[in-house]
Amino acid sequence: MPLRPLPPRRRALRTGFGIVSGVLLAGLAATAPAQGAEVGVAVAANFTAPMQKIAEAFEKASGHKAVLAFGATGAFYAQIRNGAPFQVLLAADAKTPERLEQEGLAVAGTRFTYATGQLALWSADPGRVDAQGAVLRASSFERLAIANPKLAPYGAAAMQTLDKLDLLPALQAKIVQGENIAQTFQFVASGNAALGFVALSQVLAREPGARGSVWIVPAALHAPIRQDAVLLGPGRDQAAASALLAFLKSEAARAVIREYGYAP
What we know:
This protein is of the alpha/beta class. It has two domains: about 20-115 and about 225-260, Periplasmic binding protein-like II (D-Maltodextrin-Binding Protein, domain 2, 3-Layer(aba) Sandwich), CATH 3.40.190; about 120-220, Periplasmic binding protein-like II (D-Maltodextrin-Binding Protein, domain 2, 3-Layer(aba) Sandwich), CATH 3.40.190.10. It is about 35% helix and about 20% strand. It has ten helices and ten strands. The protein has helices at about 20-30, 50-60, 75-80, 95-100, 155-165, 170, 180-190, 200-205, 240-250, 250-260, and strands at about 40-45, 65-70, 90, 110-115, 120-125, 145, 175-180, 195-200, 215, 225-230. Helix 2 links the parallel strand 1 (about 40-45) and strand 2. Helix 2 (about 50-60) packs across helix 9 and helix 2 (about 50-60) packs antiparallel against helix 10. It is globular, with a radius of gyration of 18 Å.
């Protein structure tokens, strides 16, 4: 299925599939309290490219700087519980921000959905995936990459899709799991898996000539992939943190979110 070209953008930064370095955490701890114009943000890996673009626009509009770390929401949850000084979390799901709020680690009343993700079946091979996903019923591939459904919302949505299509028993032996959606995408990009269920935004973030082939999975085949943001405890009295959350609701941010295949 052809995808429209996007304007050039900087390559997405990565943090090793959700492992945030001690140097970065120490830097956030040192700078966040002293510099109110900086905000430490933990960002779900699938939202890497749009958040980089949003952060640039946010800095130009407000003068505040967003210090971004990208990774798995589950890993960020553990780090936040262990005292990581992030001020804002942009999760890949709705449950994690709600749980942090219930545990007193996030500020009550600040949680909202910033994007609804779209699941895509993707191959780096331009001719492999058809516009209806019928390739799943063929026996022409050995591995199907899926993010861990116990940890990753996109992985859970992928399993729901296969179940709805009555394909799970037939494909179970071909499934390989990534620990998060970023690793799952790398399995397919590297050729270690012929196909994979990924976030549509990851496909759109690639250069037009490197997007392979994709089937955008109908929303009716899985539960909504609601991605929520929340203000964390360390950001409670930080103007930059509140300003970033407000900017995520602006039309400028919403336009970027739509550009990358999300519903704002």
